[in-house]
Design goal:
4-stranded antiparallel sheet; alpha/beta; single chain; 3-stranded parallel sheet; 9 helices
């Protein structure tokens, strides 16, 4: 793949040995993305290495946050609800609303949505879809507000770009924090907000250094390593 001179010059500014503050990392990332000249607005992602062992239930890190400036994408929301709650979901802007009928569609392969919300009384139906929704990270969960009677609030937050995070087997949290086109201060705010909520989610049983490493990157660009220790100290 051909790489232009502007991109090479911008990418060369990333010192692989250095750990950057959030503001500096964002500035470099935006410069590299602009120099690359992709035909689409790249997503900015963060990867955070945590000092936890997800194999132990008491060290699971999971949560959700509505980022200050969204993620630059309107998510498609499916809601499992009946009666008045179904009407509430529709009025709130849900893209797909249903009950057993929706469950049958999902079983048959329909997965054209990004977030799933369910009222508590529908979890008996939704629970049977675990093998389909679970591996895709779509299973509703009360801990992140997607199993709730307040479907209007849940739909509104999901459409606004609510980000759910969950530590993976290797102890890493991956999450989108915006688009390369976002103003630098918006990306900085989003990154700091996510880091803060992940910090607050530290399990009591986790020992040693919790924030071990972190890296920002765009969809097709190089990563910029963050100074995890300094950031943790600032947000503590």
């Amino acid at each position: 793949m051909h790489v232009g001179k502007k991109y090479k010059a911008a990418a060369a500014k990333i010192d692989r040995r250095k750990r950057y503050g959030v503001a500096e990392a964002v500035a470099i990332l935006k410069e590299v993305a602009a120099a690359r000249g992709t035909r689409f607005d790249e997503t900015v992602d963060i990867a955070i290495n945590l000092g936890v062992d997800p194999k132990h239930a008491d060290q699971m890190v999971r949560g959700a946050i509505v980022l200050p400036h969204g993620i630059g994408k309107t998510r498609k929301v499916a809601v499992f609800a009946k009666g008045e709650k179904a009407k509430e979901a529709e009025q709130a802007g849900a893209d797909i609303v249903g009950a057993e009928d929706l469950a049958k569609r999902v079983e048959d392969g329909f997965l054209d949505f990004d977030t799933v919300v369910a009222t508590p009384d529908m979890m008996g139906v939704v629970g049977k879809l675990g093998k389909v929704l679970g591996p895709r990270g779509l299973m509703p969960n009360p801990k992140v507000g997607t199993v709730t009677a307040d479907v209007a609030k849940a739909v509104g937050e999901a459409r606004a770009g609510k980000v759910e995070f969950r530590v993976e087997k290797a102890g890493i949290v991956h999450a989108p924090v915006g688009k390369a086109s976002f103003p630098a201060d918006h990306l900085r705010d989003n990154v700091n907000a996510l880091l803060e909520v992940v910090l607050k989610a530290k399990p009591a049983s986790a020992k040693g250094i919790y924030f071990q490493a972190a890296c920002l990157s765009t969809t097709m660009g190089p990563g910029v390593k963050l100074d995890a220790v300094a950031i943790a100290g600032q947000l503590a």
